[in-house]
Amino acid sequence: xxxxxxxxxxRTRNDDISAFEMxxxxxxxxxxxxxxxxxxxxxxxxxxxxxxFFNFWKNRKEINIKFSVxxxxxxxxxxxxxxxxxxxxxxxKYATSVIEGAREAPGYEQSDVELSELHELIxxxxxxxxxxxxxxxxxxxxxxxxxxxxxxxxxxxxxTVEANMGKALKMLREKLGRYYNSxxxxxxxxxxxx
Length: 194
Hints:
Blueprint: H1 2-13, H2 17-39, H3 42-58, H4 69-103, H5 112-128, H6 131-142, H7 147-154, H8 158-193
């Protein structure tokens, strides 16, 4: 039976889409359940496994499984799931540090509404950026990837990643600076009017 799956992988390597589909149909539900045991989030598990199969197809020429397709698939999905959980933790820590940093600004207290506004402003700014710039910023700050990892994943140079991060940070500083200046002016006017 294992030879059948090894043969399917070999045929997939030779661009046989039906062999790839057979592997996908066999392993997709099993791998999603496996990933979900770590994430406790079915949507995230499905995305992780879909990404795995996308990359498996994209890199099929370089992948050469000699013994167990099942072991290779499970090990890969486990590693991808752990990377996802690590990135999730990095995003959580980054969001916490941004909120804590904002709370520490002199004479400024934020309400939940203001934090929501700040989050919307950040998202709006990211959407206004060129796509590559926004993608690189998200991969770095929300995904926790290093510049070299981003460069490899996007097939660009590290210098390109650095340049795009510089642009993204400059745009965010400008937008957030305006936001904090207007909030500070509002706070000052409240103090003098009371």
